[in-house]
Description:
By secondary structure, the chain is mostly helical.
Amino acid sequence: MGDQVRQWLPAVGAFVLGVLVLKLKDWFKRLVDKAAAALYRRLAGSALLRRTALRRYTVKTHERNRSFFVSFRPEENQAMDMASVYVPLRTATGFGTDQREAAASLRAC
C-alpha cells in the first residue's frame, strides 16, 4: 500500500501544481487588467492619453448606437441598423447649390 501511494504521489503533486499554476495565471491576469484599467481611468483626461480616450469613447458610442428601435413601429421588434438610416448633415455654402458635409464645413472654420 505504501509503495502505491509513493508511485501516485508525484502524479498527484504534478496535477495539483498544474491546477495551482493555472489559477495563479488567471488571478495574475485579472490583477494586471484591473491595474491597467485603474491607471487608464486615472490618466484618461491627461494630454498623454487624450487621443486614446477619445478613440475608446468613439468606438463605444458607435457600438452602443449601432441599432435602435423605432417607437412608432411597435409591431416590429427588430432593431433598425443606424448605418441604413443615417444621412450626413449637409450645409449650403452661400446662395449657390454648392453643398458639403457639415463636419467638413466646421473643420474649415
